[in-house]
Amino acid sequence: MNPQNNGLNEEQQVLLQQMYNSSEAVKAFEGGNYLFFSGAIKAVLEQMVGVLPAGEQVHILDLGCGGGMGGVICCKLLEELNLIGDWTGIDIAEGMIANAALKLNNEESASIYTGNFRNPTEEMQENLFGKHNFIIAFGAGDGMKNYYAHMNDILKYAADGATILIIDYIKGSYNEVSLGDLVSQARPTNAHALGNGIAGQIARTPAELGITNTSMLSRAVRNPKASLAFIKLGGKESGFPAYTSGMNTLGIKSLLEFAIMADAEVASMSNKNLPYNPIILRFVATPKVKQKVVNQLNES
Q1: How far apart are CA 133 and CA 235, in angstroms?
Q2: For 212-237, what is each residue's pLDDT tens digit?
Q3: What is the rounded CA–CA span in Å between residue 122 and residue 119?
Q4: Pair 272, 173: CB distance under 8 Å
Q5: Cα separation of 10 and 233, whole Å?
């Protein structure tokens, strides 16, 4: 959870802190997205087992890390897969960071920073910029409207060749094309929306990115309190869905334009009953991709 500084007014900043530092939100985001989308993290780490050069470590950065479940999952997966490495989390909400610190108190390979990754401190720049070969950003696009600006903030932390795993929430009503239909079916009739049949090249099912009903249910069953808290937070009475729908301002067109440029893999967990849809992207942060993002921002 890290909003763009210049995209939020003072009132929105105050509301954000209230929402994410509430005891209900802290309990819910102790697990949050990680309970349901951890299969995507595992899929990336399993790929890294076979391709990392001998002796190279896995340096995971979790942007908007919430209550610390991502750190617990990542540290456990590193151990299970016999990978040497570490996990670093950043979050702007002090309540989230306090909870994460408690959960990760005994994890020597975990470290946490309190702050906004879009407006990093000198310490964060020195210690974190360009040093991570696996970056996770689950729901970190609050308040963003330009996907290139969103990615530019993230890519500053990436080493060349890093895998970037993003889950963002796109506003549910749009005039372009249904990404849920596009990704689940990759229908030729929709291909023109991405140009020259590119739809079939980038479209993936959630399962192809490691997210299956079995993996989501397994995590939920093993973490019942966090799962129930997360589900409860999604109820209308909590006020959180209304807040989130207002903050999820990213449009599908901006996301798809970036996905094409970066040759990203894209999948959708779309639910037409929600005012916003979770979209998964996985791509490699090559020097070419980084430069194209900078060029695009300079031109806009």
Answers
A1: 36
A2: 888 878 877 877 777 777 777 766 67
A3: 10
A4: no
A5: 24
